[in-house]
Amino acid sequence: MAGFSPEWLALREPADHAARNPQVLAAVGSYFSDRPSLSILDLGCGAGSNLRASYAALPDRQHWTLVDHDADLLAHARSRLADWADEAREQGEELVLAKGEKLIGVDTRRVDLNKDLDWVLGWRPDLVTAAALFDLTSRRWIERLVAALTSQRLPLYAVLTYDGREAWQPEHPADAGMHAAFVDHQRGDKGFGPSAGPAACEIVAEAFRKAGFAVSTGDSSWLIDGARADLRAALAEGIAQAVRETGRVDPATVESWLAARSEEGSARIGHQDLWARPV
Asked: Which of 1, 54, 108, 157 could cross-link to 191 by cystine, CB 3.0-4.6 Å?
């Protein structure tokens, strides 16, 4: 899967945290409310943003296993988490964090989730989670993951899955063509086979429902306004670059659209959060 820079992940983190659906997160917390401790497996952890956004809703004692294919991002995640915590210490290979009333153990492991998925799920966590991952994976990989989770009766909390909705203001004549080309690019192979793209959340939900799990979803769209101009500009450049690679939009049109998006304006980018659990 193509990597993401620490700079991009840091830029998007405030928008990610603001967008996360509070009702879905509260439901996850309620499910584990009688547990004194919890072990969590975070798939495609990036810089550890998912932990920072979720920890407060979970039991006071937590152990997170952060997995990613990018060794540099894993090292960056440890550093970011140590800086974020009230206190941090190394205990062998584990990073131990104190944050408010929470005591959080963290270990990081470099993993190829396409090749090593069964091995990773064999660690038998209490909760599996992932942020901004599933739209980059394939239907086949999603169904394989869900089959493994349901066979072990493991719940999944998946956040910020792109669902294809986009609304930019002010409107531009090229919006529809740019969006269609971007979605086409997103459906390309990111290391798991042809990507599910905007259909990913519904594919995950359908697979869990067929297995008899209860599924809840909630909107977690980015709202990007003038206060997040840097994120808007970086997002627009990323979309433009993806569209250039498809060759489906005239280069002059791409540049016109990008210039407009670099000026004043706002965007709503659709995401969904999902909570699936055994009943």
From this structure: 1
Query: Quick count: other Cβ atoms within 10 Å of Cβ 210?
Result: 11
- Cα–Cα dist 122/124, whole Å: 5
pTM for the full predicted model: 0.95
Residue 86 in 3-state DSSP? coil
- Which pLDDT value is given to residue 263? 82
Is residue 249 a contact partner of residue 50, using CB atoms and an 8 Å limit? no
Going by C-beta distance under 8 Å and a sequence separation of 6 or more, which residues neighbour residue 276? 149, 155, 156, 158, 204, 205, 208, 213, 214, 215, 216
Parallel/antiparallel/unpaired status of strands 156-169 and 266-277: antiparallel
Structure tokens at 169: 């203001």
Per the document, the length of the chain is: 279
CB 44 within 8 A of CB 67: yes
What are the tens digits of pLDDT across the range 150-175?
Answer: 999 999 999 999 999 999 999 999 99
Q: How far is CA 272 from CA 145, 199, 260, in A?
A: 18, 11, 27
β-bridge mates for residue 128, sequence order: 41, 156
Q: What token pair was written down for 71?
A: 């060794």
231 touches 15 (CB < 8 A): yes
